[in-house]
Design a protein that fits this description.
Helix content: 25-40%
Order of helices and strands: HHHEEEHHE
Strand content: 5-15%
Structural class: alpha+beta
CATH class: Alpha Beta
Largest sheet: 4 strands, mixed
Number of helices: 5
Distance between the termini: 44 Å
Strand order of the largest sheet: 2-1-3-4
Oligomer: single chain
Shape: globular
């Protein structure tokens, strides 16, 4: 049986606009409207990732961090549709991904769990899967829980 199609997450343009303004400290210059949502999301993600790259990495504002975390978790689910691995990034995101046996009740057999900043670093290529494991920044249980072949979801920064 093919994997069940995932319903795309709905992002509120006004909330994304406010999160972007908080992350950058300025007005995004785009109206908080549905047609501007892709550009707002891209700018927000860029601002959050840029905060991680500074000489003194800063933790982004909570709403910006939450939206960026969800956006990259959704990107994983889109890249590897399925239900055999559950990615948990508390308190912001949970998605199921990777083709294979699907669980329906209780704790799934393949679980990856990490914090939002580690997830952003993994998904953007700023941290390798092996580094995260070696530094105990994530837990991965189950035979399908190695996501290293699916990461990064975005190219790492140049330089």
């Amino acid at each position: 049986m093919p994997p069940r199609a995932r319903r795309p997450r709905r992002y509120d343009p006004a909330k994304v606009h406010a999160a972007l303004a908080a992350a950058t400290g300025r007005d995004p210059g785009l109206e908080a409207a549905e047609e501007n949502l892709p550009a707002l999301l891209e700018q927000l993600l860029a601002a959050v990732l840029a905060a991680l790259d500074g000489p003194e990495p800063a933790k982004p504002p909570r709403e910006a961090l939450a939206t960026a975390t969800r956006l990259l978790a959704d990107a994983l689910a889109d890249r590897a549709p399925g239900g055999s691995v559950e990615l948990r990034v508390p308190p912001f995101a949970v998605v199921q991904a990777v083709e294979g046996p699907r669980h329906t009740r209780g704790t799934p057999p393949n679980v990856v769990e990490t914090d939002p900043l580690t997830w952003l670093r993994l998904a953007s290529g700023r941290l390798s899967w092996q580094q995260a494991l070696d530094e105990s920044l994530l837990t991965a249980s189950g035979e399908r829980s190695d996501l290293s072949d699916l990461l990064p979801l975005r190219p790492p920064p140049a330089g």
